[in-house]
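Researcher: Quick test of sequence recovery. Tokens follow.
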């Protein structure tokens, strides 16, 4: 359960530098990126968590995988992206996009995780309302593609078949007999040119993977697609009507919430939990594959992260405050500032340390990390957690949530008029494994001084007398503190703390 709220802050004017949003023109062949970022990434535990999955972490380089994906799919050939994500990640998405200067075309909120088919279909139905024939490029937001220009060229090669009514998928030229990916069998061998797809192949065993690698007409399935909304909707009508009906109803019942579009929860919950491969791709006949061989990884495990980090001559890769002594083919990564991680004489080992957990694994068993996550869930099935997310007030960021259609001049006027919404810090309180206490102290808008007591109230922790008194002030003043009665309530409360000896040395 999440309570989004706002904490007013003192006015601060900052200059704006927003890129103007691109407006697609009907008939002009721009591509709309559709980024999926609702996954949990359990194979990259302990860095990737349910509340902050791998796509939002800087696994490779200084920016997150999500930010790298947004940047890769930006430019004159692309409209601003459509992002499909869960409610828990909505503010992470907007903050990370704002940090790299990209304004989304839309952010669709999934009420529940239903796999890729409903998510992609929701984006297609939304786009079809404005232009059903404008190509959409669907991509996960947690992949690494180092050569953005080569990828853009591959997308360009797939544009003609997509506009001609094909469902285009991108296949990765395999470098080894990978058993962790699905594969694509091509009708004929091809290095770059689009070619017909014969069939999808499930994740193979080692022997079958070796056979497909040697055959030369098999590619890895990257889960990246290009088609028009009209083509995809027609495919669902033909092959997966049980998905189409509830998702269409969920879009019809969608509600605008700040800059987000929340799909109808009841209808979306009725959609089958199914991937787009199973729902449509494996049944359709209008399939085209564009081969791509310039480098790609889904970072599906710590072994993949090790490869992408660029190990040295001895096969050692380190991150953060980590030191390797006489190690081989080993990953040492410290994600806690000030915590020195030292490995001595390690071989084929993965060590990842966080503030609250440490992973030590044989490199060949990196794909089994998700089993550890499942075991921990069983070990602590009822452990309650309270997660508080908030940040500083951001007058440059707030307009994207409050008035996403305003231009720079309109935003500037709002700021100069000191619209209080623009000088607020948005925060959320998430309760895991318990129902938060429904208290009158949990208000939509509060002064920051009240946040500690609101957290305690939500967690069901008894308040000591000082917090009880502050709560009484909060209720009398309707969430205001410093401005209530021209500051008289704040001064009286501070005097109580001084007289009680809680504040000393003034």
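Model:
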């Amino acid at each position: 359960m999440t309570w989004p709220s706002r904490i007013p802050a003192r006015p601060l004017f900052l200059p704006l530098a927003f890129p103007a949003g691109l407006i697609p023109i009907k008939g002009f062949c721009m591509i709309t990126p559709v980024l999926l970022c609702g996954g949990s990434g359990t194979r990259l535990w302990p860095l990737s968590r349910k509340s902050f999955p791998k796509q939002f972490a800087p696994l490779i380089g200084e920016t997150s995988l999500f930010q790298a994906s947004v940047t890769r799919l930006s430019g004159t050939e692309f409209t601003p992206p459509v992002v499909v994500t869960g409610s828990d990640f909505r503010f992470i998405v907007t903050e990370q996009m704002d940090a790299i200067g990209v304004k989304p075309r839309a952010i669709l909120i999934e009420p529940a995780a239903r796999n890729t088919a409903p998510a992609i279909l929701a984006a297609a139905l939304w786009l079809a309302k404005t232009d059903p024939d404008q190509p959409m490029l669907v991509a996960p937001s947690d992949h690494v593609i180092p050569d953005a220009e080569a990828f853009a060229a591959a997308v360009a090669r797939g544009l003609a078949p997509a506009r001609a009514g094909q469902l285009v998928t991108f296949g990765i030229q395999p470098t080894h007999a990978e058993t962790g990916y699905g594969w694509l069998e091509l009708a004929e061998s091809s290095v770059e040119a689009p070619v017909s797809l014969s069939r999808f192949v499930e994740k193979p065993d080692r022997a079958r993977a070796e056979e497909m690698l040697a055959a030369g007409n098999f590619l890895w399935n990257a889960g990246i697609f290009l088609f028009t909304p009209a083509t995809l909707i027609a495919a669902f009508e033909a092959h997966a009507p049980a998905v189409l009906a509830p998702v269409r109803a969920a879009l019809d019942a969608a509600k605008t919430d700040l800059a987000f579009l929340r799909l109808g929860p009841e209808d979306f919950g009725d959609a089958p939990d199914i991937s787009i491969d199973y729902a449509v791709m494996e049944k359709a006949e209008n399939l085209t594959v564009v081969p791509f061989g310039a480098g790609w990884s889904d970072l599906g495990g710590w072994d993949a992260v090790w490869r992408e980090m660029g190990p040295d001559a001895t096969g050692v890769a380190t991150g953060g405050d980590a030191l390797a002594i006489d190690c081989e083919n080993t990953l040492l990564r410290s994600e806690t500032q000030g915590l020195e991680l030292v490995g001595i004489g390690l071989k084929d080992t993965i060590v990842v340390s966080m503030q609250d957990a440490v992973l030590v694994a044989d490199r060949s068993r990196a794909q089994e990390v998700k089993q550890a996550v499942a075991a921990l869930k069983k070990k602590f099935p009822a452990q309650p957690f309270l997660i508080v997310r908030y940040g500083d007030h951001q007058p440059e960021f707030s307009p994207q949530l409050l008035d996403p259609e305003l231009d720079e001049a309109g935003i500037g006027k709002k700021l100069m008029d000191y619209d209080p919404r623009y000088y607020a810090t948005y925060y959320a309180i998430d309760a895991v494994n318990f129902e938060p206490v429904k208290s009158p102290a949990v208000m939509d808008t509060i002064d920051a001084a009240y946040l500690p007591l609101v957290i305690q109230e939500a967690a069901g922790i008894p308040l000591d007398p000082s917090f009880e008194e502050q709560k009484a002030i909060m209720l009398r003043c309707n969430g205001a503190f410093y401005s209530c009665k021209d500051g008289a309530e704040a001064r009286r409360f501070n005097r109580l703390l001084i007289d009680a000896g809680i504040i000393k040395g003034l």
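The chain is about 30% helix and 20% strand.
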